TrEMBL record:
Residues 219-649 form the TonB-dependent receptor-like beta-barrel domain. Residues 1-21 form the signal peptide. Belongs to the TonB-dependent receptor family. It is found in: Cell outer membrane. This is TonB-dependent receptor.
C-alpha cells in the first residue's frame, strides 16, 4: 500500500522534470530581469555564488530563490519552503506561527522551535538558548534562502539534528529601484509591501515595509503584522565591505488553541471557549540590529558579525498571562582560506561563535486577557561558545574529502525572583564535541555523489528546562545524535534535475515535549533514552515539453519519507514517534507561454495519517488527505506581474499539525485544523 501511494505521487510529476534548477527559476521569475551595475557585494553573496558555495557540501542542502514562491501567496514559512525535500512545515493558525520538522527536529514541538538554527544574513534569529519563532522572517523581504539539513550546517558553526536555514536579504545592488506588492483574498487577508533600493559609488541601501492583516480560517485568529527590514552597505576599497542590517516587527495574533478530535470533526473552525473568554493571543514587539564586515584578499576572507535583538512578548494563555522581555546578543568570526597541501588543493573554514541572552519571565493570573496577580517571576540566562572548523582536501579535482569538528560550551542559569512558593533557581553547563567526515565526488559538472557521518548535540531550551505550567529547573540531559547520510544531486541532459538524500540518525536523550491536559497547550519535557530517525528526501524538477515558439510545460516535486521511532524503549518498544506524517508530497505542473501567461495545478498529499501519542493509539491518528490547488498569472506587462493562487479547491477538512502526548484520549486538545478552500490574488510592480 505504501509503495502504491509513493508511486502514484511520483507519477503526478512524471514527464515534467526540468533540465536544471536555473531553468525552473527562469520559468517562475516573478519580476522583470534586473540589470545590476556596480561591484558585487562581499557581505551578501549573489544567488549564483551561494549555489557554488553550498554545492561543496557533501550532504542535503538547497538554495531557494525568492522568485520560486513570490508568484503566489507569500505570507508563511510554508509558502517559502514547501517544495524543499526533507523540510516539513505547517502553519498552526494565522500567518505567524508554524511547526517545522527537519529530520525529526522539533517533532513534538507545539510551540516555538527547536533543533534548527534560523539565521538572517548569516547571524542567528534564534534566542540564545536555541529556541526560535518565525515572526521576524518576512517572506517578502528575502532574496534567497539557504537550507542546510543536519550537520551540513557546520558552514555556520551549527551542529544540530535539523541543521540551519539562512534567510538572505536583498541589497541596493541586487534589487535597485522601487517595488510594490498588494494582495488579498480569503479570510479577509490583505497585505501590502513597499520597497526601495539604490546603489551609488561605494554605498548601497535597501528598505522594505510590509503590512498584513486577516481574520484567519478559525474563530479567534485575527492578526495584524507590520514589519520593517533594511540594510546599508559601504565598500571600503576593493577588498573590504561593511553592512548594517536592521528590522522591526509588531505582531498581534489571536490564538484559537488546539482542538480535541471530536471538536475537529464537528467544526474545525471553532476556537475552544476558554481561549475566546481568556482572549488568548501573542503580542510581540521586536527590534534587531546586526553588522557584517568582510575582508576579502585573494584566496583568504575574514568575516566578522555581531547582532543585538530585543523582544517583548505579552502572551495570555488559558492558565496564565506570560510577560517576557528578552535581550539577545552575539559575535561571530570566520576565516576562509585555500592552500596547497601535499600538492593538492585544500580549502578550509575556521570560526568561533558567542551567543548570550537573558529573559525576564513573569507570569500572572489571566483575567479575561489582562494580567491579574503575579504568580511567578524569574530570569533566564543562556550563553554558548562554539569553536568549529571544516576542511576540503581535494584528493583529485573531482573528489574532495571533507572533515569538520565543533566544540560547544553552553550554560543555563535560572534565577528565581519570586520566592513566595520557594526557590526554584538552578543552573547547568554542557560541553560537547561534534566531529564530521564526508566525501563529495563530482565526475562531471552538474553531477555529484556524496556521503557523510556526523555527530550533533542540543542542550535543553528554556521551554523544556522551565515549563510555564510548572516553573522550576528540570533535570534534563542534552540531546545527542549520530547521523549517516548518502545522496546525489545534479542534472541529466536537458530534461531532468534531481536532489536525493538518504539518512539514518541514532538519537540519545531525545527531548520530547508532551502536552499537559488542561493547561492550554503547555507541555513538559522528557528525555527519550534511544530513538531512530531515518528517511528519504527527494526533489525532482524538469521540462516535459517545449515548442519552437518556447511554450513549455515544466514540473517540480518534493517527496519526504520519514520514519521516526523509539528504539527498544522499556515502555513503548519500537513504536513510532508521534508528530509528523511518514510520507509528504508536494508536486506542481505548469504551462508557461512566451507572452508571459502561466497556469498549473499543484498537489499537497499526505497519503497516510500519523500518531499523536507515544502509545500509537490508532483511534486518535490523523487522517490522510490530498489538497488540490491552482496557480495562474501574467508577467507580460513590463514591470508588472499579476497572480491568482487558489488552495484546497475541494475544501478538504484536514489536520495540518498536532501537539503530542504520552497517551491520547477524547479530551486531548492536540489537533490544529488546516485552512479550507481559499483564493488569493495580487499584483506586484517594479520601477
Amino acid at each position: 500500500m505504501r509503495a502504491r501511494h509513493i508511486a502514484a505521487g511520483l507519477l503526478l510529476a512524471a514527464g515534467a522534470f526540468e533540465a536544471s534548477a536555473e531553468e525552473v527559476n527562469q520559468a517562475q521569475v516573478t519580476m522583470p530581469a534586473i540589470t545590476v551595475t556596480g561591484t558585487a557585494s562581499l557581505t551578501v553573496p549573489s544567488i549564483k555564488d551561494a549555489e557554488e558555495q553550498i554545492n561543496k557540501t557533501p550532504g542535503g542542502v538547497e538554495v531557494v530563490p525568492a522568485s520560486r514562491y513570490l508568484d503566489g501567496r507569500a505570507t508563511t514559512m510554508k509558502d517559502m519552503l514547501d517544495y524543499t525535500p526533507g523540510v516539513w512545515i505547517q502553519s498552526k493558525y494565522g500567518q505567524e506561527d508554524s511547526k517545522l520538522v527537519i529530520r525529526g527536529s522539533g517533532l513534538s514541538r507545539n510551540f516555538h522551535l527547536r533543533g534548527v538554527r534560523l539565521l538572517q544574513d548569516g547571524s542567528p534569529i534564534n534566542q540564545a538558548d536555541g529556541s526560535g519563532d518565525f515572526h521576524e522572517i518576512d517572506p517578502l523581504a528575502q532574496q534567497y534562502i539557504e537550507v542546510y539539513k543536519g550537520a551540513n550546517a557546520l558552514r555556520y558553526g551549527a551542529m544540530t539534528l535539523g541543521g540551519a536555514i539562512n534567510f538572505v536579504s536583498p541589497t541596493g545592488r541586487s534589487n535597485p529601484g522601487l517595488a510594490a506588492r498588494v494582495y488579498g483574498g480569503s479570510y479577509q487577508t490583505f497585505g501590502q509591501q513597499a520597497a526601495a533600493g539604490f546603489g551609488e559609488g561605494p554605498w548601497d541601501a535597501w528598505l522594505s515595509f510590509t503590512n498584513l492583516s486577516g481574520n484567519g480560517f478559525r474563530e479567534h485568529t485575527n492578526q495584524s503584522l507590520q514589519r520593517l527590514n533594511g540594510n546599508v552597505g559601504a565598500q571600503i576599497g576593493s577588498n573590504v565591505e561593511t553592512r548594517f542590517f536592521f528590522s522591526g516587527n509588531q505582531v498581534r495574533n489571536q490564538i484559537p488553541g488546539s482542538l480535541t478530535q471530536q471538536q475537529f470533526w464537528t467544526d474545525p473552525r471553532q476556537g475552544p471557549l476558554a481561549n475566546v473568554l481568556q482572549n488568548t493571543r501573542r503580542d510581540i514587539d521586536s527590534f534587531r540590529f546586526a553588522n557584517t564586515t568582510v575582508v576579502d584578499v585573494g584566496d583568504d576572507a575574514f568575516t566578522l558579525q555581531s547582532y543585538v535583538k530585543s523582544k517583548s512578548l505579552f502572551h495570555p494563555l488559558t492558565f496564565a498571562v506570560i510577560d517576557n522581555n528578552l535581550l539577545d546578543w552575539g559575535v561571530t568570526g570566520q576565516y576562509k582560506g585555500s592552500r596547497q597541501l601535499f600538492g593538492h588543493r585544500n580549502d578550509f573554514i575556521v570560526g568561533a561563535n558567542y551567543f548570550g541572552g537573558t529573559n525576564r519571565n513573569r507570569q500572572f493570573v489571566n483575567r479575561f486577557g489582562m494580567p491579574g496577580p503575579l504568580t511567578n517571576d524569574n530570569t533566564e540566562f543562556s550563553s554558548s561558545v562554539e569553536i568549529y572548523g571544516e576542511n576540503w582536501f581535494y584528493a583529485t579535482p573531482e573528489l574532495s574529502i571533507v572533515t569538520g569538528i565543533q566544540f560547544n560550551w553552553a550554560n543555563r542559569v535560572l534565577t528565581d525572583n519570586y520566592l513566595v512558593n520557594g526557590n526554584d533557581s538552578g543552573a547547568a553547563s554542557y560541553f560537547e564535541i561534534n566531529p564530521k567526515i564526508g566525501a563529495l565526488w563530482e565526475p562531471r559538472p552538474g553531477l555529484q555523489f556524496f556521503a557523510n557521518v556526523s555527530r550533533a548535540s542540543e542542550p535543553p531550551t528554556w521551554s523544556e528546562l522551565n515549563p510555564s505550567f510548572a516553573p522550576g529547573f528540570a533535570p534534563l540531559a542534552p540531546q545527542t545524535s549520530w547521523t549517516a547520510e548518502i545522496g546525489t544531486r545534479g542534472k541529466l541532459g536537458e530534461n531532468v534535475g534531481w536532489d536525493l538524500s538518504l539518512y539514518r540518525s541514532w538519537v540519545k536523550n531525545e527531548l520530547q515535549l508532551l502536552v499537559v491536559p488542561g493547561f492550554g497547550g503547555s507541555a513538559i519535557a522528557i528525555n527519550i533514552p534511544n530513538a531512530i530517525h531515518q528517511g528519504i528526501e527527494l526533489g525532482l524538477n524538469g521540462t516535459a515539453w517545449r515548442s519552437e515558439r518556447n511554450d513549455r510545460i515544466t514540473g517540480r516535486m518534493a517527496l519526504t519519507v520519514s520514519d521516526y521511532r523509539f528504539d527498544n524503549n522499556p515502555t513503548y518498544g519500537n513504536n513510532q514517534l508521534p508528530g509528523a506524517p511518514p510520507y509528504y508530497l508536494r508536486a506542481e505542473a505548469r504551462y508557461d507561454s512566451p507572452g508571459g501567461f502561466y497556469i498549473g495545478p499543484n498537489l499537497e498529499w499526505s497519503p497516510q495519517g500519523y500518531y499523536v501519542d507515544n502509545l500509537n493509539n490508532t483511534a486518535f491518528m490523523t487522517a490522510p488527505y490530498a489538497l488540490l490547488g491552482l496557480k495562474a498569472g501574467y508577467t507580460g506587462l513590463k514591470g508588472f506581474e499579476f497572480f491568482v493562487d487558489a488552495r484546497n479547491l475541494t475544501n478538504q477538512m484536514y489536520v495540518s499539525n498536532v501537539g503530542v502526548t504520552s497517551t491520547a484520549n477524547a479530551t486531548s486538545q492536540l489537533y490544529n485544523p488546516g485552512d479550507g478552500a481559499s483564493v488569493y490574488a495580487g499584483i506586484q510592480a517594479r520601477f
